[in-house]
Automatic annotation (TrEMBL):
Taxonomic path: Bacteria, Pseudomonadati, Balneolota, Balneolia, Balneolales
Spans traversing the lipid bilayer: 23-47, 68-87
Protein name: Cytochrome c oxidase subunit 2
Binding note for cofactor: Binds a copper A center.
Catalytic activity from the UniProt record: 4 Fe(II)-[cytochrome c] + O2 + 8 H(+)(in) = 4 Fe(III)-[cytochrome c] + 2 H2O + 4 H(+)(out)
Gene source species: Rhodohalobacter barkolensis
Length: 313
């Protein structure tokens, strides 16, 4: 039985998951019992009351009060239970505890950005402490997305020009996958992220390190780390191969052909502009689909990325 339950739902890793699952199983098990009972009754009655001879005439039955009350009251009670249970679970699900730790979430085509209270930013990795309620305040930079963590049983649409929120309390350390569940364009299916649940202590250490950003690294090393950490490498290769965006390999100092027929030199200004306002100058043959990193990367980080790209000759 436990095996079967494991196959039906993803692991339950938040405080609310157990309650949501219990209601899910209640509805499914009750529906199955009713379906089974009704099907068996139909088959038995069809056999038992079949026409047995030429003059076997069915009597006219206008009604049966006892039966009609039974089959009205039992479903009514079941529906009231499901409504009451569902409503109380829903209210708990949309009401974060007042001491919840708040994280800002920004959906962009096609990545997830997380902003923490001390200014730390992470891309496609949501870091949270274990056993502490976390409230996510979410919005989109462009189109509709939807934020979904199956292991926590939380899901909510993410909209431009409006905030929505979800909350959860992770019950164990480890990783869980985050999906975008609103079709949002070419790379919708790649709009994945991971929650990383730390102990309270490790979470504070992670925050203090600026999310693993090390300002003591050499600029080129830091640039390489930032490109990995900010999901740049999902679209821009560093070995010359073609992905969604142009490769960084050998790009430095080259003449970049643009969609509008002009050319531009691949220098500091071009890289900076392309990070902050990606669609200002679109490389010929590529779609202008990159999200802006304004507010995600600061000037020193952009400098580091430039230094790293220079090394890719
Ligand atoms: Cu974002 Cu689908």
């Amino acid at each position: 039985m436990n095996r079967l339950i494991e196959y039906m739902l993803p692991p339950a890793k938040s405080t609310m998951a157990g309650e949501t699952d219990a209601l899910f199983y209640f509805i499914n098990v009750t529906s199955f019992i009713l379906l089974f009972g009704i099907t068996v009754a139909i088959i038995l009655f069809a056999w038992k009351y079949r026409r047995k001879s030429e003059d076997d005439i069915t009597p006219v039955i206008s009604h049966n009060n006892k039966l009609e009350i039974t089959w009205s009251v039992i479903p009514l009670i079941l529906v009231i239970i499901v409504f009451g249970w569902g409503y109380s679970t829903y209210v708990k699900n949309i009401t974060p505890p007042s001491d919840a730790y708040e994280i800002r979430v920004v959906g962009k085509s096609w990545l997830w950005e997380f902003h923490y209270d001390d200014g730390t930013v992470s891309v496609n990795e949501l870091h949270v402490p274990v056993d502490r309620p976390v409230k996510l305040v979410m919005s989109s930079d462009d189109v509709l997305h939807s934020f979904y963590i199956p292991d926590y049983r939380v899901k909510k649409d993410v909209l431009p020009n409006r905030y929505t929120s979800v909350w959860f309390e992770a019950t164990e350390e480890g990783e869980s996958v985050i999906f975008c569940t609103e079709y949002c364009g070419t790379s919708h299916s790649n709009m994945l992220a991971t929650t990383i649940v730390h102990s309270e202590e490790d979470f504070q250490t992670w925050l203090e390190s600026g999310g693993g950003d090390d300002e003591d690294m050499s600029p080129a090393e830091r640039g390489e780390m930032l490109i990995e950490r900010n999901a740049c490498a999902t679209c821009h290769s560093t070995d010359g191969s073609r992905l969604t965006g142009p490769s960084f390999q050998g790009a430095w100092g080259s003449e970049v052909p643009l969609e509008n027929g002009e050319t531009v030199e691949f220098d500091e200004n071009y890289v900076r502009e392309s990070i902050l306002e990606p669609n200002a100058k679109v490389h010929e043959g590529f779609q202008g689909v990159m999200p802006s990193y304004a507010g995600t990367l600061d000037d020193r980080q952009i400098d580091a990325i430039i230094e790293y790209i220079k090394t890719l000759q």
